[in-house]
Amino acid sequence: MSTIARTTSTDERTGVVERHGSVLLHDSQRYVREAAAMLEIDSSLFNLIDQPEREVTVTLPVELDDGRVEAFTAYRVQHSRVLGPGKGGMRFHPDSDLDEVRGLAALMTWKCALLGLPYGGAKGGVVCDPSVLSTGELARITRAYANALAPFIGAHVDVPAPDVNTDERIMAWFLDEYERRVGRHEPSVVTGKPLTLGGIPGRGESTGRGVAQITMAMLEKQYIAHKSATVVIQGFGKVGSEAARRLHELGVKVVAVADVSAALYNENGLDIPRILQSVQCQPPRLLREYGGEDAQMLPPEAVLTLDCDVLIPAALEGQITASNADDIRARIIVEGANGPTTADAEEILNRRGVEIAPDILANAGGVVVSYFEWLQGLQGNRWDLATVRKMLDQELRNAFDAVLRETERRKISMRQAAYLIAVERVAGAVSLRWSQR
Ligand code: NAD
């Protein structure tokens, strides 16, 4: 079995294959349109904030270990840079395509604006399957990508970071290649770097820590005592595993976790530190290789519909759709992944009273700490873990409170409120920039 999940699904009735990336793009445009209507933004201004600013598609010729040269397609989309340089991760995935990258880049614009960060939104994708590539091949693809993107990125232009199937090792190769090419140190051209190359303590845990914090805030909002709450997490990578670690540490019962290979379930709560120890080795293991007898093994897709208070989808987009929304039994969804819930599913869930903490709020911890790392690089500074955590917690609390205030004031969903705040900020900046040009 491949360790890479597909980002397409087939409608059982029509047989039509739907690409999750296109749905994500379509849905995020729909949320922006709704926010623009509430804010009475006219159509010309709407077009300026909706359309991506720049899209780069490149072909990377890379030599494989057997001597063949293969052409890999790669993208970088800069959706908006009106509030600051583009910011967003790079994903290595066989199903990555331009629509997916477009949608993810747009999400970054709204996420950064919501958090009040001085960034626009961008995203990158390389169409490759890391599970069948050697370390050398992965490094050569990364270096080729850095070379191809070098004219379009920079600490004040567009700043990539890790995402699905990319990590600090890949950021180190990327940084090295970029700096060799431009002939100077520029650590702030990427975030999510190893500490010795200018990384920041706490970047690795930041998205998951933020997801855990938003989960706690949602439980409080719903008057559910966290010690009696049950949580299910889909995705056990950088985001899902750190969310599980933090929630367990805070005394919340994580009853199920899943990766692409399997789900582990225990209705009394999983031993998360033991599971983490079992999978986070070199090379990393999958959950299906967990040998502990304290957990029941289920197919990965089973987690979405388990009985629980909070469901945290932290794998890929398009997991909760109109086909399974009625079967979701959680009372709260905290979106660790980008775009895990389709807009059609959200309508069903809203009707059923399921509360959703939207991705642009719930998984923003990573970009907040990326911002600290970027600042650290620009200033030649060093921050310690305690300071980073304290500042992250405060930024997320402020954003959560702002979303809640807007939700209550206008009687709208948390996603609508989050988009409203973000779109208002971006539209305001566009109006100022484009006047009297
Ligand atoms: P990752 O590659 O580290 O982990 C992805 C995990 O999802 C893996 O455990 C994989 O096995 C699992 N998975 C894939 N398909 C699955 C399926 N069908 N069922 C169950 N598990 C499945 O990626 P990540 O960095 O943790 O990113 C996860 C999501 O969070 C993505 O949507 C990403 O865009 C988003 N995100 C990541 C960050 C970050 O800082 N890494 C920040 C914000 C948002």
Q: Which properties best describe this structure?
A:
single chain; 437 residues; alpha/beta; Rossmann fold; 7-stranded mixed sheet; 5-stranded mixed sheet; 43% helix; 17% strand; globular; binds nicotinamide-adenine-dinucleotide
Mind explaining what this structure looks like?
Among the domains are: 52-197, Rossmann fold (3-Layer(aba) Sandwich), CATH 3.40.50.10860; 206-362, NAD(P)-binding Rossmann-like Domain (Rossmann fold, 3-Layer(aba) Sandwich). The chain is built from 13 helices and 14 strands. The protein has helices at residues 20-38, 43-50, 98-115, 135-149, 168-182, 203-221, 238-249, 272-279, 343-351, 359-362, 365-379, 385-410, 414-434; strands at 8-10, 17-19, 54-63, 69-80, 86-92, 121-126, 158-162, 230-234, 253-258, 263-265, 296-298, 310-313, 332-334, 355-357. The chain has a 7-stranded mixed beta sheet with strand order 11-10-9-8-12-13-14, with helices on both faces. A 5-stranded mixed beta sheet has the order 3-4-6-5-7. The chain has a two-stranded antiparallel sheet with strand order 1-2. Helix 6 packs across helix 7 (238-249). It starts with 7 loop residues before the first strand and ends with a helix. Bound molecules: nicotinamide-adenine-dinucleotide. The site of nicotinamide-adenine-dinucleotide has 25 residues, from helix 7.
Number of strands: 14
Strand order of the largest sheet: 11-10-9-8-12-13-14
Work out the oligomeric state of the chains in this entry: single chain
Q: What is the level-2 CATH architecture name of the domain at 206-362?
A: 3-Layer(aba) Sandwich
CATH superfamily of the domain at 206-362: NAD(P)-binding Rossmann-like Domain
